[in-house]
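Re: How this chain folds, sequence and tokenised backbone to follow
How to read it: Take the token row as a discrete description of the fold.
Start of record: The labelled sequence and token lines come straight after this line.
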Amino acid sequence: MDIKSTVTTMSETIYLNGKFITKNEAVISPEDRGFNFADGIYEVIKYYGGKPFRYADHLDRLQRSLKEIQISFDQFDQFEPVFQELLEKNGLAGQEAGIYLQISRGSHTRIHRFPENSKPTVYATVFPFASKPDQLENGVKVITTEDIRWLRCDIKSVSLLPNVLAAQNAHEQNAAEAIFIRNGVVTEGSHSSFMAVKGGTVYTHPDSNLILPGITKKVLFEICRANHIKITEEGIPASELAYMDEMMIVGTGSEVMPVVQFDETLVGNGRPGPVTRFIQGKFFDETRRL
């Protein structure tokens, strides 16, 4: 084991319930409902050059998820300075970094219904979150898999076991992502939104209870509308995937990632297509303007 990396990990600063502490000092009750019931939500925000990308959109989605599962929390103004201090304390200020924020319903004797007097557990950490230039340039392979998740995928819940199983399946097949198919229609990826291009039109599943409303997808919609690229929000039949000219997975971590193969089938000519390239370029123009 590398001694230097061990020391760095042990001294990593996190934020937990109003305090900055080292990760090895952190204590969360075994009765925390996030641990017992996955009763919580999370967000991931990327910082480019020390500045957050679409911070307000992420906070809006955070608040919506909290409201949907009835966690009472209103201390949102604290987060921006907290995140900045985490970046500085961990030597990541000015770099490409990610903030992970998780809020659970808190600790309480195990009961299935909502407890009446629990206090939310608030946890945040920071991590290096660099782009993947080789994959962004050359594209990636994805696999398709049955969407076995629950019917409230619009909530950014910490209950991610079906996503984890799908992502592991993709990893075992040397793929970057697993694309879910529900009732014969493409929904989204295990950790990204999915978009495809046919005849110059961008297709993607409409926001609903079956998918997470993607922040990066929202940015791409703005790019497409500003540049007169037609968007059609409708589920893509799995049977039509082989006829798509281009595909991409998009998200905070994926950014705008070209897909050049799904399962054993090449997408188009097996290279990132022109519409994907154009949108990708405009997206990174946005991040450079922060």
In short: The mean pLDDT is 95. The first strand starts at residue 13 and ends at 16. The CA atoms of residues 10 and 115 lie 34 Å apart.
